[in-house]
C-alpha cells in the first residue's frame, strides 16, 4: 500500500551558524524533528524551532482555477523539456508564493513518488481537479503521452478561464450601473433633498407636483431607509440561496437569463464556445464521444445547454449523427452545426470543434468590448437623468417664485 502523503508545515527557527553568528529564518517540513535535522545539515545549530503561527485574519491565499491552469502549463512545459514528473513538481513548488498551492503541489508530489498514479493522486483533491481533468490525465498516462495531454489541458483551462473572465466582465457592467444609480439616488434623497425641503417651508405656497413627489419620496426614504437596505440585502441572499439549494429554481434562472438583451446573447455564445472547447479536447484525447458528452454537459455552465447535450448523448448512443442531433435541439447556431457536420464527414471532428470554440470565443470577446463601449455613456446618461431630475424637482419652486415676482 502506498504511504500516505505527509502534510507540510511552515516552521520559524532561531539558532547559530557555523561561525557562531545568530541566524533565523523559515523552513518547510512535515514535522519538527525533520526540520531540525535539515537545519543541522545546513550547518545551523537550532536554539528554537516552532510552527509558524497562522495569521489572525485569513490563512493562505485561496487556490483559484487560474492557479490550476498556470500549474498545468508549467508542468506541461517542463515535461516537454524532458524533466521527470516528480522533479517538475519540486521545481514548480519552489517558485510558488501561495502557501496553500505549494502544499497541494508537494502533497501530490509525495503521492506520486510513493508509487500512486498521477490521476489517482489528483482525484484526492476534487475541489481543485474535476472529473474531466482527472480523466484526461488518466488517458494521457495510459497512452504514454502525458506531456502532450498536459499541454492540451493547459490550453483548455487557459481558454476557459479567459472566457469566464470576459463573461464576468459583461455581467459586472450592468450591475455596476444599477448599484451606482441606487447609491447616488439614495444619498441625494436622504441628505440633499431635506435641505431644500426646509427652504420650501418658508415659501407659503403649494409645491409643484413633481417637487412634492420627490419630497414625499425623500421623507419616506429617511424613515424607512434601513428597511429598504435590509430588503435589498435579503432579496440578494434569498436569490443566491434558492439558486444554490433548488435545482429547479437554478434551471429556471438559467433559462430566462439567456433571454436577457445583450448579456443573454453573450452567455449563449459562451456556452457554445465551451461546448466546442471541451468536446474537442476530450475527443482529441481519445475519449469516446458518448463519454465526452457527459463531461461537456456539466462544463457549459447553463442548464438549457446541459439538458440539450444530454439529449444529444442519448441520440448519439442510439446511432444518430452528432450534427443531426445538434440541429434537432434548435439552440445551437447554424455555423456550429455546419462545422460539426464538416468534421464528421471528413473524420476531423476534433479540429472542427476547436474551430467552433475559437470562433465563438472571438464573438464573445467582440460582444464584451462592444458592451463595455456602450455601457460607459449609458452610465453617464442614467446618472445624468437621476441627478438632473432631482435637481430640476428642487429648483422648480424657485423658478416659479421668480416668475411670480417678475
Defining traits:
mainly alpha, 15 helices, single chain, 3-stranded antiparallel beta sheet, 6% strand, 406 residues, disordered N terminus
Give a verbal description of the structure.
The chain is built from 15 helices and three strands. By secondary structure, it is mainly alpha-helical. The chain has a three-stranded antiparallel β-sheet with strand order 2-1-3, covered by helices on one side. A hairpin with a 5-residue loop joins strand 1 and strand 2. The termini are far apart. The N terminus is likely disordered.
Short description:
The chain has 406 residues and is mainly alpha-helical.
- Overall SS class: mainly alpha
In angstroms, what separates the terminal alpha carbons?
Answer: 99 Å
- Percent of residues in β-strands: 5-15%
Q: Strands of the largest sheet, in order across it?
A: 2-1-3
Output mean pLDDT. Answer: 82
Low-confidence stretches: 1-5
Number of DSSP helical runs: 15
Largest sheet properties: 3 strands, antiparallel
Overall form: flat
Care to count the β-strands? 3
Portion of residues in helices? Answer: over 70%
Q: Over the alpha carbons, how many angstroms does the gyration radius reach?
A: 30 Å
Question: What's the order of the H and E elements?
Answer: EEHEHHHHHHHHHHHHHH
Amino acid at each position: 500500500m502506498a504511504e500516505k502523503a505527509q502534510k507540510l508545515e511552515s516552521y520559524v527557527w532561531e539558532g547559530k551558524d557555523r561561525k557562531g553568528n545568530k541566524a533565523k529564518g523559515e523552513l518547510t517540513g512535515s514535522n519538527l524533528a525533520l526540520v531540525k535535522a535539515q537545519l543541522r545539515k545546513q550547518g545551523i545549530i537550532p536554539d528554537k524551532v516552532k510552527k509558524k503561527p497562522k495569521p489572525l485574519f485569513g490563512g493562505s491565499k485561496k487556490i483559484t482555477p487560474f492557479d490550476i491552469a498556470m500549474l498545468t502549463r508549467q508542468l506541461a512545459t517542463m515535461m516537454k523539456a524532458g524533466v521527470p514528473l516528480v522533479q517538475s513538481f519540486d521545481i514548480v513548488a519552489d517558485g510558488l508564493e501561495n502557501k496553500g498551492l505549494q502544499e497541494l503541489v508537494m502533497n501530490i508530489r509525495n503521492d506520486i513518488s510513493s508509487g500512486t498514479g498521477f490521476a489517482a493522486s489528483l482525484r484526492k483533491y476534487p475541489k481543485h481537479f474535476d472529473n474531466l481533468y482527472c480523466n484526461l490525465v488518466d488517458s494521457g498516462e495510459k497512452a504514454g503521452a502525458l506531456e502532450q495531454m498536459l499541454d492540451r489541458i493547459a490550453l483548455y483551462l487557459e481558454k476557459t478561464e479567459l472566457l469566464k473572465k470576459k463573461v464576468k466582465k459583461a455581467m459586472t457592467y450592468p450591475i455596476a450601473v444599477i448599484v451606482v444609480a441606487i447609491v447616488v439616488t439614495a444619498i441625494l434623497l436622504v441628505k440633499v433633498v431635506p435641505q431644500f425641503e426646509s427652504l420650501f417651508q418658508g415659501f407659503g405656497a403649494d409645491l409643484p407636483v413633481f417637487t412634492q413627489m420627490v419630497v414625499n419620496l425623500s421623507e419616506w426614504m429617511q424613515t424607512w431607509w434601513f428597511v429598504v437596505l435590509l430588503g435589498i440585502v435579503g432579496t440578494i441572499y434569498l436569490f443566491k440561496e434558492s439558486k444554490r439549494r433548488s435545482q429547479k429554481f437554478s434551471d429556471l434562472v438559467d433559462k430566462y437569463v439567456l433571454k436577457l438583451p445583450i448579456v443573454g446573447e453573450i452567455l449563449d455564445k459562451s456556452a457554445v464556445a465551451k461546448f466546442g472547447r471541451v468536446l474537442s479536447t476530450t475527443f482529441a484525447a481519445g475519449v469516446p464521444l458518448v463519454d465526452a458528452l457527459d463531461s461537456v454537459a456539466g462544463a457549459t455552465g447553463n442548464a438549457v445547454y446541459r439538458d440539450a447535450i444530454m439529449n444529444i448523448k442519448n441520440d448519439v448512443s442510439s446511432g444518430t449523427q452528432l450534427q443531426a442531433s445538434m440541429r434537432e435541439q434548435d439552440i445551437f447556431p447554424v455555423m456550429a452545426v455546419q462545422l460539426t457536420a464538416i468534421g464528421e464527414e471528413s473524420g476531423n471532428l476534433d479540429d472542427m470543434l476547436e474551430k467552433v470554440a475559437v470562433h465563438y470565443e472571438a464573438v464573445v470577446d467582440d460582444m464584451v468590448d462592444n458592451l463595455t463601449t456602450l455601457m460607459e455613456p449609458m452610465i453617464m446618461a442614467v446618472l445624468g437623468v437621476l441627478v438632473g431630475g432631482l435637481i430640476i424637482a428642487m429648483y422648480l419652486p424657485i423658478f416659479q417664485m421668480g416668475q411670480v415676482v417678475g
